[in-house]
Structure formats: C-alpha cells, structure tokens
Design a protein that fits this description.
Oligomer: single chain
Helix content: under 10%
Largest sheet: 35 strands, antiparallel
Strand content: over 45%
Number of helices: 7
Distance between the termini: 132 Å
Length: 838
C-alpha cells in the first residue's frame, strides 16, 4: 500500500485511505462493513469499518483506493427514536419524532436531561442499534455538558445529526477516539479542559508551514435568551436568561416562543361547532417496476429511462421498521404511491402506509469527449445498483370530503406552556458565553517529521512560540487532522468547531437567534393525554401531506466501456466470471481479456488466441491447431490430424490411422501404426509386433515369434529355431536338431549323432561310424577296430586289419548262371595282404 492517510474532522467520520497499485480488479481480503485495525510498529493507530473501494483504471495505469471509516460512520446509518405512549392501548412505540434534553418514561412522565445525559443516550442507542460492539462512551471533559437547555423537538434525524444539534449548545466540544479499547471509546472535550500543545516557529525542520487568522468580530460579549409564554396565573410573561454585557456590539440575543400544545395543563373545554364539510384531494398513482417509474422517482443517476434495466426481483413490500407503520402488519391494501395532496390526520391510519420499494437495477451512462481535432472519446458505464425507497402509499386517489357533525367535540391548541422550572433551567446563557466569549483563531500548521506527530489529537489546543506574543496563549482548538503516513507529514487545522463553522457562527450573531423548536408536547409523548397519531375521526384536524421519500442506494458492480479512435477499454464488474477487463486494438483487432485467474490475448478475425491461467497456457490458431502448457498435462500440441504431448516422464505423438509414438521412462520408445507395434526399452530391447507375431532384439538375443508356434532365438552363444514339435539349436561348436521321434547332433568334437525311431547313428573322426538298430543289431566301423557287425542274436563278424596290410574283395572265376547264360550269383574271395588285381 502507498499514499496512506489518516484524516479526522470534528463531529464527522474520520477516514483512513490508501492506494494499491496494479490490477484494479484484484480481490481484496476484506468485505464491506468488515472491521479492521491499523497498527504501526505494533501500536493501534486506527480502528474502523471497511467501505467500498474505488477502482481506477486508464491505459496501463490501474489502482485501487481503499477507504475505511472510524466508528463515527455508524452514527450516520440509523435514526434516533424515542418512545411515545398510546393511552388507548397502554403500550409505547418508538418514533423518530424526538425531544432533546428530555427523558421519557412511557406511561409515567418525563424529566429534563443534561447535555451529557443526552449524549450518553444517543451513543448507547446507536451502539445497540449496530449490535452492541461498535463504540462506547468515555469522558465528557468540561462544565458545558452539565447544562440543561430547553427541551427541543426534532424529527427524523440520524444519530450523528441529533448529536450535532445537542452539541450546538456546547460549541467548543470536539470528539476524541481511543482505539486501544474494545469497542473503541468516544470522549468529548471542551476548549477549557483540553490538553495544551506548544510548537515553535523557529523549529523550521519540523514546523514547515503555518497561518493564523484571528476573528475578533466573533468574540461574543453577552448572551441573552428570552423565553416567552404564560406565568402560573395564565398571564403572558417572559423569562430572561442573561450573561455578560447587555449593550454594545457582538451580543447574542434570541427569543424562544414557548407557546403551543399543553404540557401538563388542562385542555380547553369541549365546544359545540356547526356541521362542517371539508374537501381534500389525494394525488396518487400505481407503483410500476418499469424503467420509466424508476427514472421518474428513484435515485438512479440515469440520464434517461432507456439507460435503466430493471431486474425481475425488484419488488414492493411492507416496511415493518417504519415508524409510520407502528401497530400495522401489512400494507392493508395501500398500493398507490401518494404523490401530493393532504388528508385529515384522523384518516391516515386506515388509508396510508409506508412501503419498502426495492429496485435491483442496472444503470448505463455514456459520456463523449472531444479535444480540438482529436477523435471523440466515449465512456460507457453499466453499474448495478440496489435502490431502496421508503415510499408513502395509500388506498385513496382523487377528491374526497370530510364531514364534521354538529355539536361535536373539538380539542383546541390548549393553554401555552407555563414557564415553570420544570421546563426552563437558567444558566444556558452563561454556558454559551463561556464557549463563545473568547477569541477564535483559524489556523493551519504543517509538521514534517520522520513519523507523523501522534501526540496531537482532535480537541487539543495549540499555542505557538517564536511569533506574535498573543499566539503563545491563543489556545486555538484543533478541529481537523491529516496524517500522511508515507511522508511523516501532519497537517493541523484549528479554529471554530466543524459543526459550527465560522460562517454559521457569524450568522448566529447577525440573526441574534438560536434555531430552536421547543418540545411543547412532552406530556402527550409520555402519557398519551392527547392521542399522538390517532385523532378523533370527528375532529376537524390538520391535513397531512405524504411527506418525502427516503432513499438508500447500494452501489454494486460496474461495467465501464471507454472507446477511442485507437481502441476500446472495458471494465466489467458484473460478469459471471468475475471482474473482467477487455482492451481491444481497433486497427489490428487484437484484444486482451482479463478475468480473475485468467488472461486471454485473442484476435477473433484471425481466429487466434493465447489464454493463460495459474496452471495452464493455451494457444489456438484456427479451429483445430492449438498448443497447451500446463503443470498437470505438460506441453500439448494439436493439429487437425496429429497430437503431441510432453509432460514429465512421457512424450506422446498421435496421428491418423492409429499412428502413435510414446517415449517414456517406463515404456521406453513405443510406436504403433496400422496394427504394427515397435517398442524399444533398455531392459527388453527392441520389440516388434503385428498383433500376431513378435520380434525382440536386445543385448542378449534376437527373438522372433510368428504367433503360430514358430520362433527363432539368436544369442551370442546359440541360434534356436523351433516350430511345432521341432527345434534347431546351433552354437559355435555344434548343431542340434530335435523332432518328434528323433534328434540330430553335429559337432566338431563329437561328429554326427542321429537318433530316430529307436535307431542311432554316430560318426566321428576319431570313433568311426556306429549304427544301432532294432533287435540289438549294431554295426561299427573304425580305423582301430575295423568293421564290427553284430546281429544281436546269432553271432558277430569282426573284420580287422594289420599294419601294412589290406583286405580286398575279388570275384571268383565260377558262378551260377540262368538258362540264358547270365550269372545268377557271384561269389567273392577275401584276400589278405597287398591289394591285387582280380
């Protein structure tokens, strides 16, 4: 926060304001009417209520003005009431027609009250009205609070307004707040009892600016209050309360007329009157929830009815808290707005009510500006407002007559108030002279320190050294303080209190009168001796008008549209997505839309956009191409036919015809297209699959599986080929074939070995050839053992050789022949020794 300022005014709500630079749509940590405490270095400097912030934006400069009011603000939010006694029902009701300086005990009577007692009642009632914890009364420092002015009648006044009227009789009284208590404590101090502060004009490093104006013309030399009325014997007389000079200039003289309705005196005797007919007119019309009705009667601020939109929730209802509705439960058929004309007071109860009319409105205002030849700048504002109105309503409309029958009773104005001590208390002139009989100095002092001067307070009096001699004892009273916390600057304004400024102070002297309306009907209020709001229907009573309409306007979110030749700026506080700002460049069509947690840069013509949120950034081009970056989903790229996504641990690319590529720590590289899958992982190597067969290649082996029972495995040691019932294993040293019913092995060391259907054949370079068959027959041939034949039953044949010899077979000379002379059998002879020709 910056530009932090605490400002205080006599008998007004003090304010703490500050600026927050940046996004004018930022969400604040508090809501309207929340209570905040401001501390500097742990010390409480301000405590108050949150008011609606002012949000300001223009171009690239945006800020929020924070506004907080001290507890005095609560006193402007309620109406001061007093009880009135209804003799007919024996019950009281609270009404806003109140008597100052009079304490009312319904059904028993009334007593005069001091100024201090009235202040205590006002503060107590205000605190109770707001829940009992907004403020409490502290000290009343000064003799003026013990004075008892003449009871005065006022109507429909808020707590702060009635407090100012009470303190008009103590014109040098100013409030002081103590924020360290709970709730904050409100005290009042008069000039004579105030703390004295002294500053030096020679301290230029601190007291950087000062000005003083002495108002000698406002020094009152004498006060004379004349009360005119009747004495105890009914003769016209007067009572004078006087203090100070009686002749010369600067005298305050006033006459207070104390005639009116009786206060405890007997009413006039009933008199006979002739029949009287009185005509009266009531002007009224229906209440319509239309833009035209709200423009005509509501406090909308609209320039025309066309600028108002009325929400369907707007309504007319009974106002139970309105004093005029006391004793009533509903509108009683009163549905017309009472505009003009008067009706007899005796007919008010049956024919009038006060309605609460609530309008949920949207108000549009447009402002165009032009500077020289520059383009026109147009600002359009749409603001939501809740307008509540207390509207007099009636059943009547048109001309009516009231007939008073002959010989009816009539209650006159009564005997004027007797000027008795119960009503008048001498001494007010002296109290006023004490406050007004001293010189008043209007002054401004500006102090600059490293921190604001926290010692000074409202109501303190100031003297200044290093200037005129009279300034050292002028005791000019502080009525305004402004502390600029950022700069350490304190601005002090002194002089006549804010509720009785210099002009009004001077007017009192010129007019020589106090604007006082004595409360002449206190007995009526306390005892109900004259009905307060239910006159006799046959009485020719006063005609009463509709009175005014009371407003309560709650400003809601706004929509502001600022149009220039180069672009448009829109600030929409009504959007469903939350406060929204839009900046659009007219030439390029580019615009920036900002909502809570989201910003979009877009061009609708070019069909391009860039949207950012706290967890995602999205770019779009056309209808199908886009890119997204998010914490959860990583980077995601999309076209009409392809998608690529990269997030921690995985990269995925997809396309048409089922094409996809995935790269991840868990699955390695995985590619799929047209039913074919290729996967590459550190632990499993390369795996290729068409959904039926699979080929795997890794550091240890190449494995192919056609999915139909045929596989091939290649490792650094062997090649294995298998099919249904068949296996081939090939290594560096051997080859092994396996099939149903047999095997075949081939190796350098072991030679050839074949088994099939119980037969075995082996052959090697060292062992020769060996064959075994069924029945145990075997045949072996080797270099060392020769030929060995074994039939497994009848015997064996061994053919062996010796070194240097050989065995040869030669045909014999004779043989058997057939009839044709062809040989039938041939015999052979075996020769040992060197091989010879046959």
């Amino acid at each position: 926060m910056s530009q932090c300022v605490i400002s205080e005014q006599s008998l007004s709500a003090g304010m703490f304001t500050a600026h927050i630079a940046g996004n004018m749509l930022a969400t604040l940590p508090w809501a309207f009417e929340d209570v905040i405490t401001l501390k500097l270095d742990g010390v409480v400097k301000f405590k108050g209520v949150v008011l609606s912030p002012k949000r300001v934006g223009g171009g690239l400069n945006e800020n929020i003005l924070l506004r907080f009011a001290d507890p005095w603000w609560y006193m402007g939010q309620g109406t001061y009431v007093q009880p009135w006694w209804v003799a007919a029902s024996g019950t009281p009701y609270d009404a806003p027609r109140v008597a100052l300086f009079a304490g009312i005990t319904p059904g028993e009577g009334w007593v005069k009250r001091t100024i201090g007692e009235d202040i205590a009642d006002i503060i107590t009632q205000c605190n109770a009205y707001h829940g009992g914890s907004v403020m409490q009364l502290g000290d009343l420092l000064g003799d003026g609070f013990e004075a008892m002015p003449i009871p005065q009648r006022v109507n429909n006044v808020t707590y702060d307004s009635v407090l100012r009227q009470v303190l008009a009789w103590v014109p040098d009284a100013i409030q002081q707040w103590d924020y360290t208590t709970t709730p904050p404590t409100l005290s009042f101090v008069q000039r004579a009892a105030a703390t004295v502060r002294s500053y030096s004009m020679t301290d230029n490093a601190v007291m950087v600016e000062q000005e003083f104006l002495k108002h000698d013309e406002l020094v009152v030399r004498g006060v004379e209050i004349t009360y005119a009325g009747l004495d105890a014997f009914g003769f016209v007389t007067k009572v004078i309360d006087q203090a100070g000079a009686t002749t010369g200039t600067r005298l305050l003289k006033t006459v207070i007329d104390c005639t009116g309705n009786a206060n405890g005196a007997a009413a006039t005797s009933p008199t006979s009157t002739p029949a009287v007919t009185r005509n009266y007119t009531v002007v009224s019309e229906a209440i319509a929830m239309t833009p035209e009705w709200w423009f005509k009667y509501g406090d909308t601020g609209a320039q025309s009815a066309a600028d108002i939109a009325v929400d369907g929730t707007s309504n007319v209802a009974f106002a139970p808290a309105a004093p005029e509705n006391a004793g009533k439960d509903d509108l009683g058929g009163c549905g017309l707005q009472w505009l003009e004309g008067g009706m007899p007071r005796s007919r008010l109860s049956a024919n009038t009510r006060v309605a609460l009319v609530t309008g949920n409105l949207t108000i549009r205002t447009t402002k165009a500006e032009e500077s020289g030849a520059a383009p026109i700048s147009t600002t359009e504002v749409q603001e939501r407002r809740v307008v509540r109105m207390l509207v007099p309503v009636t059943k009547l409309s048109g001309d009516y007559e009231q007939v008073i029958s002959e010989a009816s009773s009539s209650i006159g104005n009564g005997i004027p108030q007797l000027l008795s001590p119960i009503f008048l208390t001498p001494g007010m002139a002296a109290a006023l002279l004490a406050a007004w009989g001293v010189a008043q100095y209007d002054g401004v002092i500006k102090l600059v320190k490293s921190e604001c001067d926290e010692a000074i307070a409202l109501g303190d009096v100031i003297n200044v050294t290093g200037g005129l001699t009279e300034w050292t004892t002028m005791d000019t009273q502080v009525h305004s303080l402004t502390r600029e916390i950022d700069t350490g600057t304190t601005t002090i304004q002194t002089g006549v209190a804010e509720h009785l400024g210099v002009e009004e102070y001077a007017n009192l002297l010129r007019m020589s009168r106090l604007r006082t309306v004595p409360a002449m009907d206190l007995d009526q209020q306390a005892m109900g001796q004259v009905p307060s709001n239910e006159p006799d229907p046959d009485e020719l009573d006063d005609l009463v008008g509709p009175g005014g309409v009371k407003y309560s306007v709650l400003n809601g979110p706004q929509k502001i549209k600022h149009i220039t030749a180069t672009g448009t700026h829109t600030s929409d506080m009504t959007a469903e997505a939350g406060p929204t700002t839009t900046n659009k460049n007219t030439a390029s069509g580019d615009e920036v839309v900002t909502t809570p947690g989201k910003q979009t840069v877009q061009n609708t013509t070019a069909e391009k956009s860039n949207t950012g949120t706290p967890d995602k950034q999205s770019l779009k081009s056309g209808e199908s191409d886009s890119a997204e970056l998010s914490v959860v989903d990583g980077l995601k790229l999309l076209t009409e036919t392809e998608t690529a996504q990269l997030k921690p641990g995985i990269l995925t690319i997809t396309g048409e015809s089922g094409f996809s590529i995935t790269l991840s720590a868990a699955d390695g590289l995985l590619m799929t297209v047209d039913g074919l899958t290729v996967q590459l992982k550190p632990d499993t190597g390369l795996v290729i699959s068409d959904g039926t067969g699979t080929t795997t290649l890794n550091l240890l082996q190449l494995l192919h599986d056609n999915g139909s029972g045929k596989t091939m495995s290649v490792t650094d040691e062997q090649v294995v080929i298998s099919a249904t019932g068949k296996t081939s294993v090939s290594t560096v040293d051997d080859l092994t074939l396996t099939a149903t019913g047999g095997t075949l092995g081939l190796s350098i060391a072991g030679g050839l070995e074949n088994t099939a259907d119980g037969n075995t054949l082996t052959a090697s370079g060292t062992g020769g050839i060996y064959h075994s068959g069924g029945g145990g027959a075997t045949a072996a041939l080797s270099k060392s053992a020769g030929l060995q034949l074994d039939d497994g039953a009848s015997g064996t044949v061994n053919v062996a050789t010796q070194t240097g010899e050989a065995i040869s077979f030669q045909a014999t000379e004779g043989c058997d022949v057939d009839e044709g002379g062809e040989p039938i059998t041939t015999t052979a002879k075996v020769l040992r020794g060197a091989v010879t020709e046959a």
